[in-house]
């Protein structure tokens, strides 16, 4: 990698400039954070201080990376691996894992996969656990990316300017400037802020100095008491116009505490839109954020969730985000079809030492943010003129049972639908029998009958004209409606 040392020196210079902030500034910032919180919220924070400290220590143990090291110079006994994020936009055709390999000194380990070496011999194992079964992935491709690849990114940095963030404005300004200072010439970076209103302060520009100057001149505009986080994310995605080709990675970095008390958009809409547009969302929670929401947004959009409680941690997080976009290993493979939680296990073999890591992704038909009346289809098949579930569809029943165990308050209506072949009365009875057959299979797996309702609709609700075999197949379906959650 030709540009690694100069790139690292530039980053170190940025850190040194930012670290020139005085201890007094840090102390004032800390006081402002606590003073900005309400009395009840502050009490809750103090009561959970031990937990918050544990989280911070855990984050420090992630070894946020700022430099690189060739594998030949690394000690195998000190090498670790982490699956940083998983893209499932192309599921079930392909899943992409993004991994970093590093040592205990915080160096990113390079030259262990093509094209930086000729083979991928170090990568010896990849498997998935699906429910109770484990499947070995026989074929997967590893591709190493480094600074020399010069990938052009389109990045929108979206910053929470609501009242709950008022005490950390200086940290926000510092972090934003740091992030922009690390950009490479081919990248485009935009900056937006939001409270109840969304303001695009900097369009997707390439010139670093112009971006920073424009942001500084408009920095204090748009502060407010409400937070429209979901609306802001939806509008940030609209910044990726048609000029950004599908081959250009699109990233949103959201700096927020995860609270939303104003948006009209739903969380599910955000997640679905991000997947449809191929946008990865990295979330950065500062202070005492809503961990669950911030983590869900990152996980389900192929991004990563970070936490930071001090300016030093914020610097490390921003460095890690940009480094993770430049230096990573992409593992691509065709996954087993399973609509539920996939637990992924990966291993590296350095002859004398092996390194293993694990992660998971979720392909269940209901993800975070689903609501009552949301519906989904499921590929459950029956023999011709039969209401008995075919054997190959039993795994779909298992997945449904897993989903209902995960959401113990979930109640479903199971709907059976047919094409127009046969009489109306016959199809109505057949669809009703099929719906109740699925219901009974779920009951056999321990799901309470009171959480289920089976209904047949026959051919009364087609989703396509019954004018071809392909369209009739679309109408022969089993679908589900959420009755309660």
Distance, first to last CA: 51 Å
Rg calc: 25 Å
In CATH terms, what is the architecture of the largest domain?
3-Layer(aba) Sandwich
Structural class, by secondary structure, is alpha/beta
* CATH homologous superfamily title of the largest domain: von Willebrand factor, type A domain
What key phrases describe this protein's structure?
single chain; 485 residues; alpha/beta; Rossmann fold; Immunoglobulin-like; 60s Ribosomal Protein L30, Chain: A; 3 domains; six-stranded mixed beta sheet; four-stranded antiparallel beta sheet; 13 helices; 27% strand; disordered N terminus
Description of the molecule:
The chain is an alpha/beta fold and 485 residues long. It folds into three domains: 4-64 and 150-326, 3-Layer(aba) Sandwich (Rossmann fold); 67-146 and 330-362, Immunoglobulin-like, CATH 2.60.40; 375-484, 2-Layer Sandwich (60s Ribosomal Protein L30, Chain: A), CATH 3.30.1330.60. 33% of the residues lie in helices and 27% in strands. It has 13 helices and 20 strands. It has helices at residues 4-18, 23-35, 39-47, 49-60, 169-181, 208-218, 229-237, 267-277, 291-300, 311-326, 394-406, 424-444, 469-475; strands at residues 67-70, 79-87, 95-103, 107-110, 123-130, 133-136, 141-145, 154-160, 188-194, 198-205, 250-256, 279-286, 305-308, 328-333, 341-349, 354-362, 375-378, 411-417, 452-456, 477-484. The strands form five sheets. A six-stranded mixed beta sheet has the order 10-9-8-11-12-13, sandwiched between helices. It has a four-stranded antiparallel beta sheet with strand order 2-3-14-7. A four-stranded antiparallel beta sheet has the order 6-5-15-16, with no helix packed on it. Strand 8, helix 5 (169-181) and strand 9 form a beta-alpha-beta unit. Helix 5 (169-181) packs parallel to helix 10. The longest helix is centred in the C-terminal third of the chain and has 21 residues, at 424-444.
């Amino acid at each position: 990698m030709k540009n690694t040392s100069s790139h690292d020196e530039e980053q170190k210079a940025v850190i040194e400039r930012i670290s020139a902030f005085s201890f007094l500034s840090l102390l004032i910032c800390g006081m402002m954070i606590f003073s900005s919180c309400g009395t009840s919220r502050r009490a809750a924070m103090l009561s959970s201080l031990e937990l918050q400290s544990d989280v911070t220590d855990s984050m420090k143990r992630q070894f946020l990376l700022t430099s690189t090291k060739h594998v030949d110079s690394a000690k195998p006994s000190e090498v670790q691996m982490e699956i940083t994020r998983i893209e499932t936009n192309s599921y079930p055709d392909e899943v992409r894992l993004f991994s970093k390999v590093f040592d205990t000194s915080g160096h990113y380990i390079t030259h262990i996969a093509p094209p930086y070496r000729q083979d991928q011999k170090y990568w010896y194992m990849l498997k998935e656990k699906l429910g109770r079964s484990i499947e070995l992935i026989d074929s997967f491709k590893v591709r190493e990316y480094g600074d020399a690849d010069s990938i052009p990114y389109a990045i929108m940095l979206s910053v929470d300017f609501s009242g709950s963030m008022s005490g950390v404005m200086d940290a926000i300004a510092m972090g934003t400037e740091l992030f922009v200072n690390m950009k490479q010439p081919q990248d485009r970076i935009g900056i937006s802020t939001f409270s109840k209103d969304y303001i695009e302060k900097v369009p997707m520009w390439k010139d670093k100095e112009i971006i920073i100057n424009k942001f500084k001149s408009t920095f204090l505009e748009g502060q407010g008491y409400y937070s429209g986080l979901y609306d802001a994310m939806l509008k940030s995605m609209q910044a990726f116009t048609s000029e950004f080709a599908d081959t250009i990675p699109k990233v949103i970095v959201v700096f927020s505490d995860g609270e939303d008390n104003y948006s009209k958009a739903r969380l599910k809409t955000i997640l679905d839109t991000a997947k449809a547009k191929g946008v990865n969302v990295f979330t950065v929670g500062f202070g005492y954020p809503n961990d669950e929401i911030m983590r869900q947004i990152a996980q389900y959009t192929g991004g990563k969730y970070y936490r930071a409680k001090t300016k030093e941690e914020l610097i490390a997080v921003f460095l890690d985000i940009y480094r993770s976009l430049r230096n990573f290993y992409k593992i691509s493979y065709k996954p087993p079809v399973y609509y539920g939680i996939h637990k992924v296990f990966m291993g590296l073999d350095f002859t004398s030492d092996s390194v293993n890591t694990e992660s998971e992704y979720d392909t269940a038909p209901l993800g975070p943010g689903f609501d009552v009346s949301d519906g989904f289809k499921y590929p459950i098949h029956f023999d011709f003129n039969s209401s008995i579930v075919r054997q190959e569809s039993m795994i779909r029943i298992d997945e449904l049972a897993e989903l209902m165990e995960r959401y113990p308050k979930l109640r479903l209506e199971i709907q059976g639908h047919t094409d127009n072949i046969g009489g109306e009365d016959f199809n109505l009875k057949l669809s009703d029998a099929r719906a109740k057959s699925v219901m009974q299979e779920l009951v056999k797996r321990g799901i309470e009958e009171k959480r289920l309702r089976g209904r047949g609709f026959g051919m009364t609700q087609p989703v396509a004209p019954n004018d071809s075999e392909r369209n009739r197949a679309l109408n022969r379906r089993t679908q589900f409606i959420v009755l309660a959650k």
